[in-house]
Write a structure and sequence with these properties.
Order of helices and strands: EEEHHEHEHEEEHHHHHEHEHH
Shape: globular
Radius of gyration: 20 Å
Strand content: 15-25%
CATH superfamily of the largest domain: ATPase, nucleotide binding domain
Strand order of the largest sheet: 3-2-1-4-5
Bound molecules: 5'-O-[(R)-(carboxyoxy)(hydroxy)phosphoryl]adenosine, zinc ion
CATH topology of the largest domain: Nucleotidyltransferase, domain 5
Helix content: 40-55%
Distance between the termini: 39 Å
CATH class of the largest domain: Alpha Beta
CATH architecture of the largest domain: 2-Layer Sandwich
Length: 339
């Protein structure tokens, strides 16, 4: 079965064709980064407008690169939650109209579950595994037992980790997207240049939770307090110290979850999973079976949507024309913890 997957929840306008949930036949991602860069962040109204302009062409290209006509598709999948409301709507409305005009089944999928399907694309990642989903909008440590069986162990109590990268980069005028720029600068800096506080909320039900608003404030407003005067105040040093603090916090919670659950296989996904420091530390942890989907499947893309859509369609799930976009995540079952 060949499924078309459409993704428009944020600033990537993407479409892909995937066969039987795993074989990526085509994967087209049109990024809007240049249009948001001058605002140092995603502007929802611009995102929606660009999706409207591009979606037709992006889908046409995904089909052309797959060497297929639309009526050869077996179904259409689209991200319907969570994300920016207006951006999601473009994909959802397009998918509905497209599937209806072809008389094909279609299905709305959850973006986070789609990220957790990414490690199955062109690969086989046996369940169970722990997922570390880290991006501009989400920060989740989850236990994954199957393509739609996910228990949230930990999350952020305030900002998402990518958001903290983006805000710090914006404040210091480092460039956009913040995470990518900080990653690049950090490679030339020394993380000992600042010593940021480590949030203490790892007790009880917050055992796997993280918090980024304190670190963000420390890095932006209280930098004099935490700077080590032995180091010059360069962008590179700031980036290295901030990056280390932000990523070490994630790793601390992740390692607790690994210890408590006994699950050693860990899959990272979302934009922040591209971070080179995160990757090198995870790969160096010998007790972990750390897996990183290729970068093209880590960020937002249509292939993960098509893959998850296949799994749902294959077991008989269908959406109908009343499908709506819902910007908020339907409440994830929050586990009692890994124990
Ligand atoms: O998954 P994604 O493309 O979009 C969503 O937010 O859903 O993730 C984008 C986020 C941004 O916050 C960006 O700054 C961050 O991922 N990011 C990074 C890196 N590349 C992108 N953060 C840290 N290191 C990177 N190399
Ligand atoms: Zn995402």
């Amino acid at each position: 079965m060949r499924i078309l997957g459409i993704e428009s929840s944020c600033d990537e306008c993407a479409a892909a064709v995937v066969e039987d949930g795993r074989r990526v036949v085509s994967n087209v991602v049109a990024t809007q980064i240049p249009f948001h860069a001058k605002y140092d962040g995603v502007v929802p109204e611009i995102a929606s407008r660009k999706h409207v302009e591009w979606i037709d062409g992006v889908v046409a290209r995904a089909l052309a690169e797959a060497g297929m006509a639309a009526d050869e598709l077996d179904g259409v999948a689209v991200t319907s939650t969570p994300g920016l409301a207006g951006a999601l709507l473009v994909g959802v409305q397009f998918a509905k109209a497209f599937a209806w005009s072809l008389g094909k089944p279609f299905i709305g999928v959850n973006h986070m579950l789609a990220h957790l399907w990414a490690p199955q694309l062109e690969a086989d990642t046996p369940y169970p595994f722990l997922g570390l989903l880290v991006s501009g909008g989400h920060t989740l440590i989850v236990r994954v037992e199957g393509f739609d069986s996910v228990e949230v162990l930990g999350t952020t109590i305030d900002d998402a980790v990518g958001e903290a990268f983006d805000k710090v980069a914006k404040h210091y005028g480092l460039g956009y997207p913040g995470g990518l720029v900080i990653d690049r600068l950090a490679r030339k800096g020394d993380p000992r240049a600042a010593r940021f506080p480590f949030p203490k909320l790892d007790k009880g039900e917050h055992r796997y939770d993280v918090s980024y608003s304190g670190l963000k404030t420390a890095a932006i407003r209280q930098i004099d307090l935490f700077w080590n005067p032995e180091y010059p105040r360069t962008d590179e040093n700031l980036a290295a110290a901030f990056e280390k603090a932000a990523i070490d916090l994630l790793l601390d919670r992740l390692m607790k979850a690994v210890e408590d659950t006994g699950i050693r296989r860990v899959v990272a996904g979302g934009g922040v999973a591209a971070n080179s420091y995160l990757r090198s530390v995870m790969a160096a942890h010998r007790e972990l079976d750390a897996r990183f989907p290729p970068l093209s499947y880590c960020g937002d893309n249509g292939a993960m949507v098509a893959g998850l859509g296949y799994m749902m369609l294959a077991r008989g799930d269908r959406s109908d024309l009343s499908l709506n976009a819902s910007p908020r995540v339907p409440i994830y079952r929050r586990g009692k913890g890994g124990r």
